[in-house]
Design goal:
The chain is of the alpha/beta class and 269 residues long. Helices cover 44% and strands 14% of the residues. The protein binds nicotinamide-adenine-dinucleotide (NAD).
Length: 269
Amino acid sequence: MAEELSGRVAVVTGGAAGLGRATVERLLEDGARVVVADLDRDTGESLAEGCGPEVRFRQTDVAVAEQVQELVAFAVEEFGGLHLMVNNAGIAGVMHTSLLDEDFADFQRVLSVNLLGVMTGTQAAARHMVANGGGSIVNLSSIGGVQAGPSVLAYRASKAAVIHFTKCAALDLAAHDIRVNCIAPGGIPTRLLASATATAGPEAEEINKKIRAHMAATQPLGRLGTARDVAEAVTYLAGDRSLHVTGTVLTVDGGTTAGQKPLRPASAS
Ligand code: NAD
């Protein structure tokens, strides 16, 4: 369906890189105008310049509620409205190999960006949408919020909370024609993965390799997911093809959270 989002205005937080950037590019293809919000001014500005007049950049720290409110006001001022809010910005935090080694030094920051940022982003967008005919809000969780696992425990806890918050907000806002959904991607090679392991010392590269090999081996579809895969899911939840979908968690994980991969001899596959 060409130009499905023509006339719609979107905000994508964390839109300068990774999954957010792929989402910005995908939304543009569907005819949306997009405000890219990110901490990273240089990358965000050059993305906006490269994309042309349908994209604006706004430097924003989603952990600061006032900045998130200003971001929504900026989108409305620049493009005359807001129909889609993608609360995508997130950080992994420091990776410790076990709970026994945790010092929780980054707990506040991880929760402030990953959870409070999503909550204030949802609230600020909804306050505009309530008075303007509704809209769609898409929050980025993770399979780390669906399925338990070791390490990056604050990250996993924040992503589980995003799922629960999304469902609560969907119920709260349904009467206003505001849909709130979340996406739980599986492991996708981006800076986020590198940032989690870069703090793990000299063995970081080795850990990175193991994580990639683990991702490919454990995903039933047997391929590494891409940022574009996630952007396609956001686009579906953004537009009218998902008009009856709210409060849901769409996993984009190659089947990882569906259950166990069958144990078959290689020749039988
Ligand atoms: P990334 O690190 O590649 O990009 C994240 C972007 O967010 C960067 O441009 C960064 O500058 C920006 N950002 C970070 N903190 C911010 C803040 N406080 N305010 C505004 N912008 C900020 O990460 P990614 O892999 O693209 O992840 C995007 C989202 O998807 C995150 O919420 C992440 O938890 C989630 N996710 C990613 C994966 C994966 O494997 N990559 C898996 C599951 C979920």
